[in-house]
Design a protein that fits this description.
The protein is mainly alpha-helical. Helix content is 76%, strand content 5%.
Length: 127
């Protein structure tokens, strides 16, 4: 578990640095990258507890029926969409709370959330 958190932290640091380099509207100070990555790791762990796995809070509250039905109907896109929405919210809140981190356009917000979603997907595949 600790190793997974360390790898997640390193990947999120790398992701934030790559986004900073590739997208001019994604502005973050280099010194703020580890702090932002640490916040992303913490939020992802909490969201993972709330939404992931078979014994999570959402499944307990709805008996798993609603989530499974929506995933079945949407061919799994429901879980992907929920994760993407959480990533958008995470980046938006981080942008509003910090003066060292700025996302200037909505397009940049969506692309960075998609990159975070893809990184989470890769983490889930390997861990």
């Amino acid at each position: 578990m600790i190793f997974k958190l360390i790898v997640m932290f390193a990947l999120f640091c790398a992701l934030m640095y790559i986004l900073r380099m590739l997208m001019p509207a994604f502005q973050i100070e280099v010194g703020a990258i580890p702090i932002a990555a640490l916040v992303l790791v913490a939020v992802n762990v909490v969201v993972g507890i709330l939404l992931g796995g078979s014994a999570n809070i959402l499944n307990i509250l709805t008996l798993g029926i609603v989530k499974k039905m929506l995933n079945f109907i949407s061919l799994g896109l429901f879980s992907l969409l929920i994760g993407f929405i959480f990533n958008v919210i995470i980046f938006w809140v981080a942008d509003r709370l910090s003066d060292r981190f700025t996302i200037k356009t909505g397009r940049t917000l969506l692309i960075s959330a998609a990159a975070l979603q893809f990184t989470n997907f890769l983490l889930g595949r390997f861990f």
